[in-house]
Amino acid sequence: MISRLTASAAGALALALVSTGSSLAADFGRPIEVQAGNSQLGVSDVWSGMYAGIHAGRGTSAGVVTALGKDGAWEGGVHVGGNMQFGALVVGAEIEGNYASGLNYDLGGGAGLKQNWSGGAKARAGVALDNLLLYGTVGYGFAKLDPTGTVTSDGKYFGGLTLGGGAEFMVSDGLSLRLDYTQTRFDDVKYTAGGSAQTRDLTSHAVRAGVSFRF
User: Fold this and answer.
1) pLDDT score for 99
2) What pLDDT is recorded for position 71?
3) For the chain (length 215 residues), average pLDDT per consecutive 10?
4) Is the dihedral of CA 88, 81, 77, 155 positive or negative?
5) Which burial class, exposed, middle or buried, applies to 36 when counting CB atoms under 10 A from its CB (0-12, 13-18, 19+)?
6) SS3 for 152-200, per residue?
7) Which residues sit opposite 163 in a β-bridge?
8) DSSP 24-81
9) By CB neighbour count within 10 A (0-12 exposed, 13-18 middle, 19+ buried), where does 154 fall?
10) Rounded-to-integer distance, Cα 202 and Cα 215, Å
11) What distances in angstroms separate CA 55 from CA 2, 37, 140, 167, 211, one per listed residue?
12) What is the C-alpha to C-alpha distance for residues 126 and 85, in angstroms, rounded to an integer?
């Protein structure tokens, strides 16, 4: 995709049309590559605007490899956000809500916590390579952790730092596909097990694929 041609490039193209005739017509269908650093052609602004979409993947409390394996929990959700593009730089923000099919945290001694509902608000920043966006995220994530096993305390919401990164590809003006990784850290999670109040730092990992509809 070419965002614009400079006046000099347009003049050169017109001259080439006159001088080469049918030869140019045969070659006209070949795509023209736009380099991000080309000061004459510039960078296509394809990422600015709002979007909303759905995503699904696997999550775990035991690392990204486990998330992709049989011990991971299926999860899915929705996201809404917006981007602004400045040359090759893309910045934006996004909120999301998720539901997992029982993401478990093993606390030892038969105690555990289970995560179903979660969400987050994140800032995004990345580099656009025409229709491909490589990005990182950082923000605040939260989840409701319910008791399992010997835990006797009630389920509560806990929050903490969420960060990650991924890649997104613009399929058309109104549709993009993504694949990303997210890590969320819950510090000082308090619970009661075996009649004793305890505190743990917990971490969740998720690998998700998604589709966004842009407007």
Assistant:
1) 97
2) 73
3) 36 38 39 39 82 96 71 92 97 98 91 96 97 98 96 96 98 96 96 94 96 96
4) positive
5) middle
6) CCCCEEEEEEEEEEEEEEEEECCEEEEEEEEEEEEEEEEEEECCEEEEE
7) 138, 183
8) HHHHTTSPPP--TT-TTT-----S-EEEEEEEEEEEESS-HHHHHSTTSEEEEEEEEE
9) exposed
10) 37
11) 30, 33, 18, 14, 6
12) 10
108-129 residues labelled b (16+ CB within 10 A) or e (exposed): eeebbbbbbbbbbebebebebe
Q: Which CATH architecture has domain 49-214?
A: Beta Barrel (2.40)
> What global pTM score does this model have?
0.77
d(CA 77, CA 58): 12
Structure tokens at 169: 């590809």
Distance CA 125, CA 84 (A): 10
The 3-state DSSP class for residue 8 equals helix
The total number of residues shown for the chain amounts to 215
171: tokens are: 């399929």
For the chain, the structural domain boundaries read 1-42, 49-214
